[in-house]
Model the fold of this input.
Amino acid sequence: MMWLLACASEPALPIETGLDSWIVWDPPTLSLGRLHQPGDGGFVRTRDGLPIQQFRALGPEGVQAFTLDEDFQQLDSARLTPEGEDDGDPALTWDQDAIYQAAPKAGGERAVLRKFDADFDLLASVDFALDQDERFLDESITVDQGRVHLVSEHREAGETWVDNQPPSDEHLRGLHVRVFDTDLGAIEEHDLTAQLPGASPENQFWGLGSSQIWTEDGYLVFAQQSVGDEVTWPEGESRGGRAVFALLFDQDGLPMRTWGPLSPAGQDAYWPTGSLAQDGFLYVSYTFRRPEDGPVNGPPDPDQGNLALLVLDRDLQPVDRLVLTDLSSEQLAAHGGAHRSHLEAFEGGLWVSYDQDGRAWAQEVLLD
Done:
């Protein structure tokens, strides 16, 4: 069933939905399908195909690529991280021809970007120095239209957290974007910053734990930022509740529009690390904490919450939300929570991949 929507004067959203802009379909009905736990690891990414592929970070063993059958039983594995390399937080993506993986190097002053073929053999590698205003942790990477976008956090004046307090309100905070071609040749770099009405402060948003959808028309970013003390947590312990926002930038990195908060009030919502456009809707996965779970001191520790999936229409308005995990406050304190989620579409649904307590998970979400 569909209904018609009058065209608005706001900038068009940079998403390819496969539908005319004046047609809006009813949102799908969401339900939980099978939950898979194929092994250990963090920074989990699941790729649809025959066979299914899953990528996980296994500490000193580096990033491993696993091939799985339809029941997520392991068929084979291969190591991606070259022997002798000591990488930090990995980011990974793919297109039909190759796999791309990035990570900070030991010492935190340089990072590396690698390209692998379908057999997980290394094709190319480039390392580069990090800017003094850059934080290369929980970075993200996407490949689209022949360009690889590698995203870290920009902090003006290189400020860091001190005594659980965030960088100074006087300075900008946002994304640092490096653009490469698919042969790993550097093309350009941008700092993406914006004023974010409803945030506290309004001149900052987090590059850490963000996700992006890139197109030829612009950059749609999902990120977190504080919204004050709406969950009544002390200012000295936390900036208060965080929320998920969306920000639209043009191809030159100039801000065009913002939306949010998109996540429910009364919760601490952060690390929106999974996002994709599918059949006229946008899906965003993120971590959240309830007031009874207590505050997260300083930077939110992404392994201390539950996961939810947010569904947005093409006007960036929430139309549905599905809670994916339901860990109690006691479980979160004892074993950590579900975090670092990633979205991948398969026929009839989505996989939400994440890690919890050192193990890799993939939750099927069925779309009817």
User: Anything to note?
Assistant: Confidence is low (pLDDT under 50) at residues 1-11, 16-22, 230-239. The chain has one helix and 26 strands.
